[in-house]
Amino acid sequence: MAVTMRQMSLIVSFFGVLSFIFGVIAENKKPSSGTAIQGKGVVICKYPADPTVVLGYLSVASLVVATVVGYFSLFYPYQGKSVPQSVLFRSISFAVFFNIALFSAGLALTLILWPTITEQLHLSRNVHHNLQTDCPTAKTGLLGGGAFISLDSALFWLVALMLADNAREDHFDEVEGKDLKTGA
Predict the structure, then answer these.
(1) Domain total for the chain?
(2) Which of 18, 20, 131, 156 is the most exposed place for a label (fewest CB within 10 A)?
(3) In what order do the strands lie in the sheet with 35-38?
């Protein structure tokens, strides 16, 4: 069974939206701070149970799948017909959207991973020798912002896919037109 461009775009859309949903829920479930418990010369931070770290990593995984599928969908030989990359990058619009999609995917990955790893470190390193600690959590807003950029990234991959489809059609029309002129 051959993979179609429509199936690839549905996969990119699904995982882009999934990454967005996981990121927004992770942002909303993140506690504002932990509870400080005084010990002998230390402060132990107790955090409420929350799914922020798991949801953050699920958002990252979904973003990576959407990005990898988006990237490969542009160069995949649909119906057994491949197009040289130089043909695709001849279109300035394609090149611009391709680069924006890559940049936004990297930015979204950074904005989701940073607070997720930070939150995981806060949860695992919860004993502080500074008696004035206020039991911090990851910076608020980064997960949500990363989730929105993740969704934007998936949309840019879809636009790049549509532009690649146009470039493919133009290329094959040129090739068929040359074949008709030469009689081959």
Answers:
(1) 1
(2) 131
(3) 35-38, 43-46, 127-128
Positive or negative: CA dihedral 119, 146, 103, 58: positive
Q: Which two tokens stand for residue 177?
A: 């037109």
Provide the whole-model pTM. Answer: 0.88
Say if residues 15 and 60 touch (Cβ distance below 8 Å): no
- What are 54-113's pLDDT values in tens digits? 999 999 999 999 999 999 999 888 888 888 888 889 989 999 999 999 999 999 999 999
Cβ-based neighbour number of residue 6 at 10 Å: 9
Task: Give the span between the Cα atoms of 40 and 127, in whole angstroms.
Answer: 11
**For residues 76-109, b (16+ Cβ closer than 10 Å) or e, as one string?**
bebeeeebeeebbeebeebeebbebbbebbebbb
- What are 58's two structure tokens? 């699920």
Residue 61: how many CA atoms within 13 Å on its side-chain side? 7
**In which domain, by residue range, is 58 found?**
5-182
The Cα–Cα gap between 45 and 155 comes to 40
